[in-house]
Amino acid sequence: MIGVSEAHSCNLIHRDLKPGNILIGESGQVKLIDFGISKFKGRGLTKTGEIVGTVPYMSPELLVYGSKFADARTDIYSLGHILYELAMGQHFWERQGWGELKDFVGYLGQTPSPKEAIDLSDFHCDFYPDAIHVIRRMMKVDLNERYESVDEIMSDLGYVPKLSEVGLKDLHLRYPLLIVESGTNRSTRTLLNIEDGNTLVLGRADIAGADDSISRRHIEFSRSGDSYAVRDLSSKNGTMLRGTALKADAAPVEVHHGDRLKIGDIFLRFAFVKEI
Fold first, then answer.
1. What contacts 24+ positions apart, CB below 8 Å, involve 51-56?
2. CATH superfamily entry for domain 2-161
3. Which whole-number Å values give the CA distances from 201 to 184, 192, 229, in the listed order?
4. What is the pLDDT of residues 26-59, one digit of tens each?
5. Among this protein's residues, is 211 annotated catalytic?
6. CATH 1.10.510.10 domain residues, the chain
7. Cis bond upstream, residue 129 (ω within 30)
8. Among candidates 232, 73, 245, 79, which has minimal Cα distance to 148?
9. What's the pLDDT tens digit per position in 108-126?
10. For 72-85, what is the mean pLDDT?
11. Which of 11, 62, 132, 200 is most solvent-facing, going by the fewest CB within 10 Å?
12. Of residues 16, 71, 75, 206, which has the active-site annotation?
């Protein structure tokens, strides 16, 4: 799950997570492979509505609407199937005797409609005591009811990251920077010296020069104490944080040291500068 979390932190959605795309080395190191149909949110690599991937692991919204709706929650759904398979020894579809998409469609078409895309009535897991509660939320039919991040899942499963894994060793810090990691303005740094309680609006001229994938007023950063947050200002090409698109003009979402954002076609990193 850590690998998927890292991909999402770079706003990269895999879209074809399955056991065949997870390799385990002799030392126990886990690697994700086959990012061939992965995408950066907002950049269409396939035709909208085209089904690309491994159907039994694909989320309902990906099957119905195609890649346009792929975000972190799409991969989280696939991870739910993988967790089920690890615990039960078989994919849910295989245990149900399903072989075609129409079998799954029939399951979803029940009355009343199931809230989860999986039947957990006989589910058990020997290695995560609370797995049934976690997998139920991972497999929600409505993506808005699923976990929004893999980090939340790991926390609920009892995983406690090392300080070095979350970058806390670097937080002997003061004011944050916004670092441009792509485009013609790559390596440009903007100091977010926002006073407590104030906000700062950034757009095309501040971040990407003439890149018109970014709106003139694209995002707003705010500060409360030592915490910073960001929100999208109804931009034309959207903002993505930790693999999930920010809703236009919604409440600010807290942003942390090391987080990566995608605004328009430009990738940014939020980081603190060291005290002098």
1. 52/15, 52/16, 53/15, 53/16, 54/16, 54/18, 54/20, 55/101, 56/81, 56/91, 56/92, 56/93, 56/98, 56/104
2. Transferase(Phosphotransferase) domain 1 (1.10.510.10)
3. 21, 10, 12
4. 777 888 888 755 554 444 334 444 445 689 999 9
5. no
6. 2-161
7. no
8. 73
9. 999 999 999 999 999 999 9
10. 95
11. 132
12. 16
Name the 3-class secondary structure at 121: coil
Q: Which residue has the tokens 């056991």?
A: 19
| Start and end residues for every CATH 2.60.200.20 domain found in the chain | 168-274
> What's domain 168-274's architecture?
Sandwich (2.60)
Share of the chain above pLDDT 70, in %: 86
CA distance 127 to 158: 11
Query: Looking at residue 195, what DSSP letter applies?
Result: P
Q: Are 38 and 12 in contact (CB under 8 A)?
A: yes
Looking up tokens 């999208």 gives: 232
pLDDT over threshold 70, residue 96: yes
- Across 145-159, 167-181, 253-267, the highest mean pLDDT is recorded for 253-267
